[in-house]
Amino acid sequence: MSDIKSDPHRVLDQREDHAPGDEPLEDSGHWIYNANLGLGFSIVLTVAAFFLAGSHIIYGPSIPVALIVLAIAQMGVHLAFFLHITTGPDNTNNALALAFGVMIVGIVIAGSVWIMYHLNGNLMPPEMIMDMNSRP
User: Fold this and answer.
1) Residue 22: is its pLDDT beyond 80?
2) Which domain holds residue 119?
3) Is CB count within 10 Å lower at the N or C end of the chain?
4) What pLDDT, on a 0 to 100 scale, did the predictor assign at position 63?
5) What does the pLDDT read at residue 30?
6) Considering its fold, how many domains does the chain have in total?
């Protein structure tokens, strides 16, 4: 049994039995290291995207696919290193909030595309608008 209540500054190790909320103490160096590591990954991915877009290293039509892959990797870096979204049991609310936000953005984008598609089909052709303007 853990005696974390008697000594809150003791660092937990892997052999102890502890609850999900009992996490080892983290010093400021840990947060600075993670932030700098995330910044480094973000810079590398951004430079790679600009480099791929401006070079002829990969086949031309596959450049959008490569940029999408780099963008998804960039989102993963931001979620893990800056927003601290992990798979831990204490992170359920953050993951649910992220899923809800993605769902709302998806609904807004899908609804906008649907509205624009139907407006495009129901608008008057440009030739008819020109004919209406030329009549006295």
Assistant:
1) no
2) 88-136
3) C
4) 93
5) 73
6) 2
